[in-house]
Structure formats: structure tokens, C-alpha cells
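Q&A log
Question type: sequence-to-structure
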Amino acid sequence: MKIAYALRNFTLLSGASRTVAAVAQRLSRWGHEVSLSAHRFPPLGVWQPGAIRLHRIPMLSFSSWLRAASFNYFAGRSLCRLRPDIRHGHGDLLGQDVLTLHNCDAALAYHTNGLHKISAGTRYLRKRQLHGNSFRILTVPSQRMRKDLVEFERIGEEGIRVIYPGVDLERFHPDLRAAGRKNLARELGIAEAGVWFLSVLSGDPLKRNLSGLLEAFQALSASRPALLFILGPRKLRPRFSHPRILWLPPTPAPEQVLAACDAYLLCAHYEEFGMPVLEAMACGVPAVVSRSSGAAELVESGKNGWILENPRSREELLHRMEGVIQQDLSELRRNARKTAENFSWDRTARQFLSLYQELSP
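Response status: OK
Response body:
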């Protein structure tokens, strides 16, 4: 089968680009002819495409609307020349067989009380995508996002399929814990003892409730010997500093940091899924996950992690972090890994392939 993927920014930092990379590589290895069209690609050496054909798409960048419209135009022309059996877009095309959305901006605006602003380019795309017959099947990464698209975008749920992201179970593994913790402690000049928390920020700090996380941890650290690592771009770092809050730059090997920590924190106001939660669980690291996140569908509170019912409540988040410090985590670590083992990238790729075969028998 000839399969063409298209997304504007293939950076390997977003859930969209990591999903495309993992699924495309597997389908290519399984003998399918796979191409990937994008405006941005990662630096040479960061990702090995193998037999996947890459096509760089030009884009006009004067405004968000022009970026959206120009990428759709040029990518559409490129895909017409390729003549694939399946066109799979990830939020940036107006014509495709399969549309996978990774964001529901209307739901995010609701959960942030309107503070999240939707760009003109996103409004242009979503309106025409969801109400203009631009796809045959729509897929999303969680039941949460499926429900929100029905509620906020007023589309029928019968045309929405849920396909969860996967995780590389060999790359993200509990065996990395001892060496990862030792190496990180040596690199940062800190002690290996104590409880280590981790949160990953790939973008919007408002969406991921960064201020609420920092406030709760400051209250915790006043009486508890814990550390908070935040993995994310320097531009997101607030002006104040705290001796127990350590900022780490984005890394191509997040598994080393994930495995080294004791608990992962996702206290987002809203998250369509939250791939670092699954990656943490694969490393045997239980997670505190807000109920308004898609990854909460993987968590059984008290068994393989904890649910944060109200991410706006500093007291609840503080209570959850204190529970991590006081609790024996051995069983939760084992259960977190067992849960993650049900979500391999091979499983995700097979689900997408079955969908493609359904559309192109």
C-alpha cells in the first residue's frame, strides 16, 4: 500500500510528529511505500527515515492564516503528484482520507476560562476540516478528545475513531532507573537520595498549569526533601528560581530522565492525551494525572498512578505529592509498567493499517 503522511512541523517534539514517526517507520518496515511531507524536519542524525521518502513543503509565514493556507495548498499539490492509496493528515490539510487531530482548541479555551486564544490559522483549518467534508475518517488519541469534539465542535461521534498513541517498550524501560539516576545526579551535582518528581513541558505553560505546579511544589518543599525536574525549553522558565526546582533542556533521550524519577506530574488544565505519561509508565514511573487529560484513561488511582480531580486545587496536588513521598511505590511501579505494555507502537501501527485497509480494500 502507498501511504502519504503530511504535517506542517515534523520536529519529534510534539505528539503528532512522534506518532507519525513511529507509525510510518513500522509500516515502511512491513513493506508499505511510505512518504512524509512537512515544512520542518529535525536535524540530520536525530531521526533515521530509512526507506521513507521525505518531501519538504514550502510555506508562507507572514501570518497564522497564511501559514495554514499556504501549507495546505503546497502539500496538497505534492500529494496529488504522489498519488497515494491513503492520504493521512495530522491537522494541517483540508483534503485527506484519514484526519488525525491532536488538539481540541475549543475545549482548551473552555478549561482555561477563555485565556487560551485560538489563532486565525487554526480557526480557518478547523472550521473547514470538521464541517467541510475534508476527511473520510477522523481519529483522535483519547476518548476524552472524542467526547470534547462532539461537545464543542458539534460533530457526530460515529465518524470518530479512538487510536491511542504507543510507546517504545524497549527504549523506555525500568532497567534504566539506576544508571539514569546516578548519571543525572552526577551531571547536576546533586544527591541521589530523596524523592524526584518530573514534568515535561513541550509548549503552552498555561495549558499545562505550570504556575499551579510550581506553587504546590514550593509549599511541599518547605517541609519535604523532594526535587522537581522540569524538562522543557528555557523560554518557558519563570523569572524566579528555587533551589529544588531544576530545569532541564529538551533532550533526544528523555527516557534517561523519566526512568530516574519517582513520579511524573501532569496537572494540566486540559490535555488531549499526554504521551510523557505513557512513557513514564513504561519506565515504571507512576504518574499523577489530571482528570481532564486523555492519559487519565490509563490510570487506576492508587494502583498504577493517581488521578488529580481538580488541577486548580493546590491542596489536592500537594496531597498527591505528599502521598508519593510517604508511600511504598514498588507495586505501583510494576503496575505502571504492566499498563504501558498494552500500548506498544506496533499495536498502534496495526490499528492504523487496519483503518487504511478498510478505506482502500
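Response note: DSSP finds twelve helices and 13 strands in the chain.
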